Amino acid sequence: MVSFENIQNYSIEFPDEWTFLWSAEEARQISNAHKDQIYFLNDEATNFVNRYLETSKIIGRLEDPISQNYFNNIEKYQITENTADLKKWLFNTNLPFDKFVFTDCTSGGYSIMLTWKMVIKYCEGLFFSEDLYIFDNTLNWALFYYHENEITFGLKKIYNKEIEYDKALIVNQIIQKLNK
């Protein structure tokens, strides 16, 4: 069974198609040090990552893709043609370079596990044409790239799943009593 502790075991070879690393040929030419920090995930792991994200309550509405009820800080960033500015902004999030993060399902049909350092390094390919969530397993932060060159970044989690679970139990108990 897939978990964040063993998810790397569910990786697949670099795809023979266009990805955020550009062409398959260009992807094969990146350094082994970078390849060791990028994992394309198989269907089972992709489903796990997507279910985790979908049940997290992070996802908001289209106009607010990161839920205002989940994070204390929501920041917007407009991407320009100056990639150096984008990389600087990503760097200034102060996320650990060696921390593995996850994307939701890409157009290729798989999620990707990569370090934050690789997000910064290959941001031009990641933030190119399709909407994309990036987050880590703690859910203490999340990033959403909107295909019209806008990033929404949520930080400092305020959502408490235990409290929300208790609230849902109380509501369900009330509904059960009303239906008797």
> If you average the pLDDT, what whole number results?
91
Largest sheet entry: 8 strands, antiparallel
Helical/strand content category: alpha+beta
Coarse shape: globular
Question: Which percent range fits the helix content?
Answer: 25-40%
What radius of gyration results from the CA coordinates?
18 Å
**N-to-C CA distance:** 39 Å
Number of helices: 7
What's the arrangement of strands in the largest beta sheet? 1-2-5-4-6-7-8-3
What does the oligomeric state look like here? single chain
Number of strands: 8
Q: Please tell me the total number of domains.
A: 1
How would you describe the overall organization of this protein?
By secondary structure, the chain is of the alpha+beta class. It has an eight-stranded antiparallel sheet with strand order 1-2-5-4-6-7-8-3. The chain contains seven helices and eight strands, in the order βααβαβαββααβββα.
Explain briefly what this protein structure is.
The protein has 180 residues and is an alpha+beta fold. It is 32% helix and 22% strand.
SSE map:
Blueprint: E1 11-12, H1 24-28, H2 32-35, E2 38-41, H3 43-54, E3 71-78, H4 83-91, E4 100-103, E5 112-115, H5 116-121, H6 123-126, E6 132-135, E7 141-146, E8 150-157, H7 161-178
Antiparallel strand pairs: 1-2, 2-5, 3-8, 4-5, 4-6, 6-7, 7-8
Can you tag this structure with a few keywords?
32% helix, 8-stranded antiparallel beta sheet, 180 residues, alpha+beta, single chain, 8 strands, globular
